[in-house]
Write a structure and sequence with these properties.
Layout: H1 11-17, H2 20-32, H3 40-44, H4 54-68, H5 77-85, H6 92-108, H7 112-117, H8 119-129, H9 133-147, H10 154-171, H11 183-193, H12 200-218, E1 254-255, E2 262-265, H13 276-285, E3 292-294, H14 301-311, H15 316-323, E4 337-340, H16 347-357, E5 362-366, H17 389-397, E6 403-407, H18 421-429, H19 431-434, E7 437-439, E8 444-446, E9 452-457, H20 465-470, E10 472-475, H21 484-498, H22 511-520, H23 526-541
Helix pairs in contact: 4-8, 5-6, 6-8, 8-9, 9-10, 10-11, 10-12, 14-15, 14-16, 21-23
Length: 547
Amino acid sequence: MSHADDSSPGRPVVRAALGPMQRLDTLSKAAAEGRHLPMLNDLLRGCALFKEDVRSDAAQFAAKALDRLDGNDPPAHPLLFALSELTHLPEPQDYLIAAKAFEDLQRDSPQARLAAMEVGVRCHLYAALTGVHASVHKVAAHAVALAYSPGIGKEDAVGYATAAIAWLLAANGQTTLPERWSREGAAGFLASALDPDGPGEQMLLKMLTNREALLQKDGHQEADPHRRRRAPSMIRPFMPVEDEPEEDGEPHAEVDAETGALAAVVFTEVGNTQTPAGQRVLLEFRDLLNLPLPLEPVPDSAGLREALLHEFPHAAEVCDAILQDLVGRSHVAFRPVLLVGPPGCGKTTFAMRLAELLDLPMEVYGCGGVSDAALAGTARRWNTGGPALPTGMMRNHRHASPVVILDEIEKAGTSRTNGSLPDALLAMLEKRTARCWRDPYLEAPVNMENVVWLATANDLDGVPAPLRDRFRILRFPNPGAEHLSALAHRLLVASAVERGLDPRWASPLDVVEFAAVASVWRGGSLRHLAKLVNGVVTARDRPSTHH
């Protein structure tokens, strides 16, 4: 972890003499009075901005970065111009331009002195504090990475974890950033992360427990200068030494050094490459071996919920249950979800729309009549050999987190003559085995822990018990008559798009049309409602016989 801004002679002595919180308060006061430019890591933990003002801090920071930038290096010129803009009344877009210029420079011509200052993330911090929500996700991801850093002590880990939770809650729309990143504003923002009425304390427990388990797994020893000091009473229960992380904890992610985005390595090897078939498979996957594939940052949960309820007003409880899984995560990840509801209630369409809004690659796999394990791939020795469906999706889309929608899963055959779909799914759905699931086509392990599994069923009678145990089962309701107005307009828009028309031509039902549809449809199947709406559209297009 860098301390590139610790340039004043007395700083190391002061840090050693003061506890973490006292030290931060001292730095915050100095920054607020304009006597000290704080480091990014101190800002995240509650230190005030320089003069408690974004533009003032950005101007001071940009001037310092410009001193370390080699202006004679042509690849550095875009960043030089971008940082210069930050020294005089910058706008939010200027911070994003500087962040992008820094990322481009580090990719093409890395400069260690600038990397130590974490220019990109700091510019995203400025953008986030001036209203750019996408940058809130960037800062949250950086805070999460700091919280899991092995080279810090427990007290620092708690501080970074608290900051990570606050920024994650802000990214999810569950808390708001302060109007000013002042001493009071920053402290209040971080305090809100552990509001007793919110999810923050449980998130802190999960993060610290996962951190402890990761450190033990990797053999790291924490550099804790206060090892014998007892943690504060509120934190102590969140720091178990021997417990395993919860099974539904966040899948492992890393920050891609080139892009700064969250990513995960999916493919590490191809087995048995001495054969012609093995060479062929190696050619397919060679470019992806040990390559971090992107993960999608957690979106604005409030906006996502609003978009889903606009189209599925009858599914509020399902929306809230699914979106709750995003709380406390740095990237999109869900437990496997099985939506159970009557035919025509919209559950498959809901699953597809959720994937679209999350901006994840998606494929619908119809389970009706499937009587083999083809979804799990076919060995390369057969002419029809091919990878498992999730493996192929991750290869084709170069993404670590595709969405697989298992439609009508209760209709899958259970005969084991050629393998069965339910049996093939069990290891993919179990997190521990999904991390190293062996693909028969690659003849090597594949990391599937970030695959999002959504399934639908009309009832649970045909779903085997082991499969039910691995899914989170949510009841998807039929829409009621009270939802007619919202649903009818959505179906009118869909009908216009299918007919190749501009959706703006889909005028709402008039009073007579609405009454006619309402007299027939009093809730139930959306397919039935769609037929009625299409009937209205057809009647509108029919030439009038009256003169």
